[in-house]
What we know:
Layout: H1 10-24, H2 28-36, H3 39-51, E1 58-62, H4 68-75, E2 79-84, H5 87-91, E3 99-101, E4 114-120, H6 129-139, E5 140-151, H7 157-178, H8 181-189, H9 197-206, E6 213-217, E7 222-228
Parallel strand pairs: 1-2, 1-4, 2-3, 4-5
Antiparallel strand pairs: 5-7, 6-7
Helix pairs in contact: 2-7, 3-4, 7-8
Amino acid sequence: MLPNEDLPQGEDKAIIVERMFDQIAPRYDLVNRLMTFRMDVGWRRRTVRDLALEPGSTVLDLACGTGDFCNDLLRFDLNPIGIDFSAGMLAAAGTDAPLVRADALQLPVPNAHVDGVTCGFALRNFTDLSGFFHEISRVVRPGGRIGLLDVGQPSNPFLRWGHSVYFGTIVPKIGALLSDPSAYRYLPKSVDYLPPSEEMLAELRNVGFVDAVRVPLSGGITQLFLGTQATQN
């Protein structure tokens, strides 16, 4: 799917997204809990369980925001490192995991260095999704795992309609009431950045996550991409 004409592209997108997340960081967690009815907590914990990594494994949480995913990784006895390019988000973080300010498209991490990668609801915010997939493939060791969450489109027509109305109309009102109105008008529109799920699966398989699968969650309003880095011969 091509981004609509109202959405920023390239470097403009990077600048706008960074400023937006700096702005909404103080109430980001509160708005997330309210607009998802706390389902976001279950989605993240499902992701960590499905990584199926051994305790003590090192996991990069990319676009870590305020550290929610890092905290869930810690609960499963994993060793997370949070990475985000929003200074505001990192300043508002509430986690004991180490945090690094960096670009997820240019990770300060050696090749095949980590056991896993997580990313929660940020795929549509990257300026180069293909580049992101190549970068996580570079840093994940053979046999390592990825778990990537983002919004989805329910297959049931009635649920898809209801989700569209809620996400496009109600979420911006919640965001305007509790946080920054322009940010929460942008976030529902940003779904248009996401390619079809089949294309994302094909790209993940092409960069080395040969068993990549998509798991619809909560009727398909959220989608989870899982995969294992191919082992070397």
